[in-house]
Amino acid sequence: MAHLGMLIDLNLCIGCHACSVACKAEFDVPLGVFRDTVKYVEEGTYPRVTRHFIPVLCNHCEDAPCLDACPTGAVVRASGGEVMIDEGDCNLNRFCMAACPYGAIYVDEEKSVAQKCTFCHHRTSEGRQPACVDACPTNCRIFGDLDDPDSEISKRAAAHDTRVWKDEQGTRPSVLYVDPKNALNLIADDGVQVDTNADLSGDPS
Amino acid sequence: MNVADAAHRILPEPPWGSLIAIYFVLIGLPSGLTLMSWWLRREGDSSTTTVERYSNWIALAGLLVAGALLIADLGRPFRFYLMLTRFDNLGSPIAVGAKLIAVKVFVLAVILYAMRRRRPTVAAKSIVETSLAWILVATSFALALYPASVLARSWASPLAHTSGAAVLFALTALLMGAAVTILIVAAIGADRQLPVIRHALLALLGFFCVALVFEGLSLGSEPADRRIMTELISGDLATTFWALIVGVGVAVPATCLSAFPNRRGMSVLGATAVIVGTSATRYLIFVAGR
User: Fold this and answer.
1) DSSP 3-state assignment of A82?
2) Is the dihedral of CA A58, A62, A68, A73 positive or negative?
3) I need a surface site. Which of A168, B34, B40, B70 has the fewest CB within 10 A?
4) Is the bond preceding A47 in cis, omega lying within 30 degrees of 0?
5) How many helical (H) and strand (E) elements, i.e. helices and strands, does chain A have?
6) Average pLDDT, stretch A100-112?
């Protein structure tokens, strides 16, 4: 059985949101929610400031908390290891959302079911790439079989130090990051997202 | 210094809102009531049968209201039906909890029917009735603990991840049960039962205080835990903690029940205060640290 995964090279991501838009268009994702988005995290103080772009999506964890949590068995694992939601069995109790440490599941109010990234299962089962991968102008996303040593994703993963988001959760994500600047750490801790001591108070005096 | 756009939150809004909060508060009452009623029957005399009947009716009503809350939260009754009929994942505490609620409602209905038909005495119990009573006790104890199991799997309720959460859920359920039992006893005038339940309630309050203290002590190691502690002691939730839990939930009933043991009105006041305090405790476990 294949182990499908995605490698995201943060050196290459320019934060253009082409992936988010392509995903939205592919699945008609409602306003205000995302299957795939790009988080911005700024680091440093003027004049030495850096903005990191970190694409995030469902991690299709090997030890998926959402899959274990769903009471009705609506969260299932496909043959490639993708974690998907069977809409017919979802009763919208939102336990999967409460259990997912990545906030990757949302409620589609129109369909009235929980939804998430499927790694574009409908496309990959036809041999195509996920919509976000196809849309990315910098090719920062590589999709493929992590268990196949000849796949591009395996070769790229072997050639770089890769890491995962919230490794401490022990969920064994299938989304790997090339993250030489340790940008993932900046979104790993709730305390660093907003600086309340910024020197721009808004006071004209 | 790290600065980020506040709009890009790490996690979305917590998926469970006020209806589920009320559900997790309310679900403790039927459990505690059944357990207290069972204990009282083992301790008491024939008048406990009346108390037991009222307890069972209130427990059944509580479970039905809890079910209604779940249906309201899920949006459609069919989804609750799906919850009961689809038990594909027994690794999910929600699936187990739904099963337990269904079993308890059924057993309660059977017992209430039997009580209405035959009015059994305490002494004369068939094996079936005894078995049903034990099933009721077992499901009630499980339902007393089940919120801790559910919330411990959610990032939105970090206080439920702590070592004392299950103890607090169990104790608050028992306290709610004891408090409502006092209200029942006072309402039907079964005053002989009052001292026994009052002593039980005071003992449970003592255990509750000990559990609160050790829960607080367990929140000292991790930065996230310390943030929750600060939120409870001096932050946004401090008023709820100090006023409703410590003041109304502990100090008022302890005073009413120990200083005025022979006054029914003070027992009723103390019991009502316990219900408020325990409800606040369960609510805080649900919302603290969000």
Assistant:
1) coil
2) positive
3) A168
4) yes
5) 6, 10
6) 91
Chain B 218-277, CB below 8 Å of chain A: which residues?
Answer: 223-224
CB atoms B6 and A194 under 8 Å: yes
Of B75, B153, B154, the CB nearest to A112: B75
Q: Which residue is it, tokens 């006054």?
A: B263
Residue among B5, B10, B231 with most chain A CBs within 10 A, to mutate: B10
CA-CA distance, A198 to B204, in Å (whole number)?
Answer: 49
Distances (CA, A) of A101 to B157, B218, B228, B273, B287: 12, 23, 18, 37, 17
Please determine, for residue A44, whether its predicted confidence score (pLDDT) is greater than 70. yes
Q: Does A137 touch chain B (CB under 8 A)?
A: no
- What is the β-pairing status of strands A48-57 and A75-77? unpaired
Contact partners, residue A125, CB within 8 Å, separation at least 6: none
A143 strand-pairing partners: A6
Helix (H, G, I), strand (E, B) or coil at B178: helix
Tracing tokens 């680091």 back to the chain, one arrives at: A43
Beta carbon pairs, A and B, within 8 Å: 117
Surface-to-core class of residue B120, CB atoms within 10 Å of its CB (0-12 exposed, 13-18 middle, 19+ buried): middle
- ipTM for the assembly: 0.78
What percent of chain B has a predicted confidence (pLDDT) above 70? 91
pLDDT beyond 70 at A193: no
Scan for tokens 């499980």, then name that residue.
B142
Lowest mean pLDDT among B8-12, B123-127, B135-139: B8-12
**How distant is the alpha carbon of residue A94 from its chain centre?**
19
- pTM beyond 0.90, yes or no: no
Contacts of residue A71 in chain B, CB cutoff 8 Å? 83, 86-87, 89, 92, 94-95, 98
B17 touches chain A (CB under 8 A): no
Contact across the interface for B154 and A99, Cβ inside 8 Å:
yes
Instruction: Report the amino acid identity of residue A14.
Output: I
Residue of A67, A93, A116 best to disrupt the B interface, most CBs of B under 10 A: A93
Greater confidence, B176 or A191? B176
C-alpha dihedral, B144 to B160 to B73 to B112, nearest 10°: 0
Coarse DSSP helix, strand, coil percentages of chain B, rounded to the nearest 5 percent = 80, 0, 20
